[in-house]
Write a structure and sequence with these properties.
heterodimer, A: 576 residues, five-stranded mixed beta sheet, five-stranded antiparallel beta sheet, 23 strands, globular, B: 173 residues, mainly alpha, two-stranded antiparallel sheet, 5 helices, 57% helix, 8% strand
């Protein structure tokens, strides 16, 4: 027992330690006019009202919170759905901390950290008026598997019974893994092994609590009842998404789910990035999703500096290469791409050195487990890596392409159809042609690009994608994006887009996750070694670490930036 | 004696010679022809322009490239130095015979060189369309002329309908 108590304490400590994520500082101007960093100011009803207008080139696919895996809609889920836990909704580093949401308190740990016990709050209702019950909680965890959530295998496979659910999703039952008692409102989540990151995973949109009768398949454009201050009124992916106040919401924990200020939030789709910039300048929109074209940054950075917020991120732009399809089923071809990419050029396309930094490692700088190395820069190699990227090596790339025997092959580059992604794609096309391929560019709607490149049926050879942390743990990058369990052929939810599966490294990643329970520092060191071992095989090409640029209209006030989910949409106030 | 031209020319001059003489005497046609020759020549010499004048490959992105202007090496895509110092701007027209006469695009490519290469494609499309129209029209005309009255009438009728509804028809296809 003594050993178990010690183990439980260590697990609890690791929760706290891993809640204190990135220490990188923001270079822009945060502005929380009413409060201080880490503390959300008390709700001021006099500042409520108005319609907040957000704009984007395209929508983000399904509205189903258990399936959607995009930053675009996860930002909206913060103000609509709730899980047992939530990330603290505040400005600054405290936003990495988890707090009780639908649960009354953080979980009690027992059984060596394998059992988490919660008590569900009473009195919380869905937007359709029904009470949230423990039966909804159990059904929601089962639904994660039934709807083939992209993280079912990566994040929630540690729940007892998850193995059977992964094998037979349609009939998923977690009777031994999620045990509920309606009489006491208690919920027990039983794990097969202690998990240092389980609190984070329970705070993500993929683990939000939905009504028990939510459909057992992708809800698509049909809104599912919410618990947060807003609900989805309508969604047309080709035109507009509308959020209105949830009439059944009352604030129960301001840190987890604060009341919102705008009466309505309207997300308009279809505008190009250029038009989005104009709309904000003209006061017709309040914020834009898409990267600002580099040729407009200078203009707005000079004319409207007070309407721009810049923040460092633990994120990356990268090129997943299909490890199971020619030419990138050949490791030398993949290494060639890594050598050929001029990361400084891609930084320029994004907006320059103030907004991005070249990157070579899979784990971003400042992230738990990050180790400085770069095999794919001029003068370096897998056997003799440099500590950072300096310059491309086109001649080495050409030589590798020749050695791989893939020279002359056709390569299609699939990118999202917004201006910045298309420019990235044009550049990559030029590079691939230079090193010996016949490359073509295939821009497709941002509404479907992310799921399109995941599905092996689409035979995507190489694409441009982005990854923003789900929570501050190395497994969220390496295991989620390159683990064997995240690769599901023929599915739109196969987040391991490279199709990479190295069983030996996969085991090392699982061992590192287990090690984190007792020794976070040792685990982080191991993640750094794993990162280097993975990149020796170059399943992807990492391009750069971006910063987040928020361009706001002049009437928007009370901007708060959560390091976890970025701009807190519901907290924006509109000048009347 | 009469002072007016006869109703028709009874000389043995061919229509081609008549056309050529009319053309040579018309100054406006001289100007138009000269411009056309210059445009065609420039586009045909696009590869030479790229290799000898701009000295860049117009199909290769040179985002991190540099160019020497007035003895100073400058970036083709330049970081903004104003305001928040965010964004990059492609180099503008140098107006000097050499690299980036008309400036660079957002991939760092020479705009003038790409303009000439693009001109080749544009002219090719234009000439091809005109040539195809000429061939088809001649063929249809010959068939109509040498066939019997019925075929001639049908072709004539279809042509009339097409020309009457050509705007709507083109939108449909």
């Amino acid at each position: 027992m003594r050993r178990s108590r010690t183990l439980v304490s260590l697990i609890a400590l690791s929760f706290v330690l891993s809640a204190c994520g990135s220490s990188s500082s923001d270079s822009g101007s945060d502005s929380n006019a009413q409060g201080q960093e880490g503390v959300l100011a008390p709700y001021d009803a006099s500042k409520a009202g108005g319609t907040l207008t957000l704009v984007a080139k395209g929508a983000a696919g399904t509205l189903d919170p258990h399936i959607n895996y995009t930053l675009q809609f996860w930002q909206l889920y913060q103000a609509t759905y709730d899980g047992l836990l939530a990330f603290r909704k505040v400005d600054g580093p405290k936003s990495f901390e988890t707090v009780p949401d639908l649960a009354e308190a953080l979980p009690e740990l027992s059984d060596g950290g394998k059992t988490l016990t919660f008590t569900l709050r009473k009195g919380i209702k869905f937007s359709d008026g029904r009470d949230v019950t423990v039966n909804d909680v159990k059904a929601s965890f089962e639904r994660i598997f039934k709807v083939l959530s992209p993280t079912a295998g990566g994040f929630y496979n540690g729940i007892v019974g998850a193995d059977a659910c992964l094998a037979n999703p349609a009939t998923c039952k977690l009777d031994q893994g999620v045990i509920v008692d309606p009489a006491t409102n208690k919920i027990e989540i039983k794990l097969t092994a202690p998990d240092a990151t389980i609190n984070y995973k329970l705070s993500l949109p993929h683990a939000v609590i939905l009504p028990a009768d939510a459909p057992s398949k992708d809800a698509g454009t049909t809104p599912i009842p919410t618990t947060g201050p807003y609900m989805f009124a309508s969604y047309d992916p080709n035109k507009e998404l509308k959020m209105v106040r949830n009439p059944n919401f009352t604030e129960w924990n301001r840190e987890a789910q604060p009341a919102g200020y705008p009466d309505e939030i309207v997300y308009q789709f279809g505008l190009t990035a250029e038009a989005q910039v104009n709309a904000i300048k003209n006061g017709q929109a309040d914020w834009m999703l898409d990267p600002i074209p580099a040729d407009r940054l200078s203009e707005i950075g000079t004319e409207l500096p007070n309407q721009i917020k810049v923040h460092t991120l633990t994120a990356m732009w990268y090129l997943p290469m299909n490890n199971n399809l020619a030419p990138f089923d050949n490791v030398k071809a993949r290494q060639a791409v890594n050598y050929a990419l001029d990361r400084n050029a891609m930084v320029k396309i994004f907006g320059g050195e103030q907004l991005a930094s070249p990157a070579c490692t899979f784990l971003p700088p400042g992230f738990p487990g990050h180790k400085d190395f770069c095999q794919y820069t001029e003068g370096a190699s897998v056997e003799s890596p440099a500590t950072s990227w300096a310059a491309p090596d086109i001649e080495k790339a050409k030589q590798l392409v020749k050695e791989s025997g893939t020279a002359g092959q056709k390569v299609g580059i699939v990118v999202s159809d917004d201006e910045v992604n298309k420019q990235m794609g044009e550049y990559i096309q030029s590079v691939l042609n230079q090193i010996g391929y016949k490359a073509t560019l295939k821009p497709i709607s941002s509404n479907i690009q992310f799921t399109y490149i995941q599905n092996t049926k689409n035979k995507v050879q190489i694409s441009v994608s982005q990854w923003y942390q789900d929570f501050p743990a190395a497994m969220d990058f390496s295991y989620i994006l390159l683990g064997c369990e995240s690769f599901t052929p023929g599915s739109d939810s196969s987040i391991n887009m490279a199709g990479y599966c190295n069983k030996a490294l996969n085991k090392r990643m699982i061992d590192a996750m287990n090690l984190a329970v007792t020794d976070q520092a040792a685990a982080d060191k191991e993640w750094g070694e794993i990162d280097q071992a993975i990149m020796n095989e170059a399943p992807v090409a990492v391009a750069f670490t971006p910063k987040q640029i928020d361009f706001l209209s002049a009437r928007v006030k009370n901007y708060n930036f959560s390091k976890q989910f970025y701009m807190l949409v519901s907290q924006l106030q509109l000048d009347k | 004696m009469t002072t007016h031209e006869p109703a028709f020319n009874l000389s043995s001059e061919s229509p081609g010679k008549i056309a050529l003489r009319t053309l040579v005497r018309d100054r406006r046609s001289w100007v138009a022809s000269t411009m056309l020759v210059i445009v065609v020549a420039l586009t045909l010499f696009a590869p030479l322009y790229a290799s000898l004048v701009s000295k860049t490959d117009p199909f290769v992105s040179t985002i991190n490239g540099t160019v020497v202007l007035d003895g100073v090496e400058v970036q083709v895509l330049q970081q903004s130095t104003e305001g928040l110092k965010i964004g990059v701007n492609p180099i503008g027209p140098t107006w000097k015979i050499g690299p980036y006469f008309l400036g660079a695009d957002n991939q760092g490519r020479d705009v003038a060189a790409r303009l000439l290469y693009g001109g080749t494609n544009t002219l090719l499309i234009g000439f091809s369309a005109a040539a195809l129209t000429l061939i088809v029209a001649t063929l249809v005309g010959v068939i109509a002329g040498y066939s019997g009255k019925i075929i001639d009438s049908v072709i004539s009728c279809l042509s009339t309908i097409y020309f009457a509804l050509s705007g709507a028809f083109n939108k449909w296809i």
